[in-house]
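BACKBONE GEOMETRY TOKENS:
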Amino acid sequence: GRNLIALLQLMMATSGELRPRSVRAHLYRAMLQYECKRLEEAVCDLSHCLHLDATCALALYNRGIVHTALGNTHHALRDYSAVLLLSDENNPDYRDLTVCAYMNRSAVYYDQGSYECALSDFQQLLMLECSDLSVYHGISMALMRCGYLGQAVDGFTYVLAANPRLVETCLSRGACFWEYCHPAGDAMAMRDISRAIMLDPLCTKAYVDLGLCLQMKGYYQQAWYQFTKALAIDPQCTRSREARAILNLQLREFDAALQDINTALKVVKSAGLLTTRAVVNLYMKNSRLAMHDLEAAMAADCKSFLAFFNAGCLAAQQRHYVKALDWLTTAVKLCPEDYSALNNRAVLAAISKDLQGAENDLNTAAIDADPYCLPALKARVTCYEEMGQSENALTDYRHILELEKNE
């Protein structure tokens, strides 16, 4: 570390004096900046490279890596795309750079939830005859996220046939089987997770996944044991802490749940953990601390749907309707398909005498998102009655009676 910093300081002192227009010198210095965690300075050097030579694909590629490390995903995608435009995949000198650009861009797409784009990039890698098993694994992960479960299972099976000892692939196929939501799929999921534990007895992710499966099946004591086993391996594992806290909450062991989530927050303060602690505080009848945690969660991650949704619901209970409406509107923007957020926002709109806004939300919640959502239908009946639309109210009443009769 000290040698790198000393070399970097020497280059900073001499590169500008010796060869101020040397692309290679700025590239080398940028690499040293990156290794020394001086990411902003690395971006500046790489940008200067591109100012000197706008077609330098290597500078674009490396700047994409630095932007990814900084969390600037939009800029990273732009740079990787520019590399692919400049590179010639038929030229052996560019082939490795093209493969790496596709790999990195697909990873960025996947992390930001653009699974179709990630899938397209992985498929491009196959066309380049890149036979690395990680590409097939990536394709299967993207297929699973896009909802093509059967094809995803086939992909994971192909990878495991080539290398049966890949723990991550075992867990991914198990997760895919679990998404089937039927007993046979559940059994195969637990088989794959157990296989992963046999391959790596110290894999905390496998124990947590198995615990979550057992919890969903109603085997709470066995689930608790799996979460505890993961913590015995790694006491800093926040995922197992949070999972055990939620299980304790489900078992109404509120003090144990709060202790687990507080311990997890000492390791890392994330929006998810803060939201979970807020829910625990709500169960313990401490709404003031719950709101404090939710506000901290929203500040920590402005894209946390659960934080905004729970904050909106709690603010509505406390009769802070303006705040509640604002937070629920943000929640709807973050997850437009969640009918619970739409339904709650509709209730607030009705309280605020915005009957048209309430009707619009209820139409979306009761028809587009879930045509069998009884709370949304009942709320829409009330809204129609207030607006004097008796025929529409009567139609919804009949629909509700049919649904209740078929339950």
The chain has 23 helices and no strands. The two ends are 67 Å apart (CA to CA). Confidence is low (pLDDT under 50) at residues 2-11, 13-18. Residues 92-111 form the longest helix (20 residues).
